[in-house]
From TrEMBL:
Assigned protein family: Belongs to the bacterial ribosomal protein bS6 family.
Tree of life domain: Eukaryota
Listed GO MF terms: small ribosomal subunit rRNA binding; structural constituent of ribosome
InterPro entries found in the cross-reference section: Ribosomal_bS6 (IPR000529), Ribosomal_bS6_sf (IPR035980), Transl_elong_EF1B/ribsomal_bS6 (IPR014717)
Keyword Signal in record: yes
Gene: Mrps6
Protein species of origin: Brachypteracias leptosomus
Record flagged with keyword Signal: yes
Name of the protein described by the UniProt record: Small ribosomal subunit protein bS6m
Amino acid sequence: ISCYLLFFFFLLKPETAAVLKRTVEALLERGAIVRNLENLGERSLPYKISKHKERHRRGGYFLIDLEGPPSIVSTMMDHLGRDIDVIRRGFIKHPVSKTEECSGIIPVNYEDKLIAKK
């Protein structure tokens, strides 16, 4: 499954690296391949979110482009749900780009070649 993991959290700047490191290590342990990590910056949340006995109005947004088995979604949602630094998390599936065949090369039918030699 090829997807994005979007999550945001409310932390001080030095702790940001620790949360990202924990999240990426958890993805790698579960068999994911991380293609890209993008910082979308600190923004106001779409609405006030109460999480871990705190109210949050702002959060740091991150987007991780990854490829992994479909079973990774439920295990990572559970893992990130227990992380006290993560306010909200979600997976967004994105389509895999199809490779185009080269129009200059004609595929060879090997069955016809074998039959013709007999």
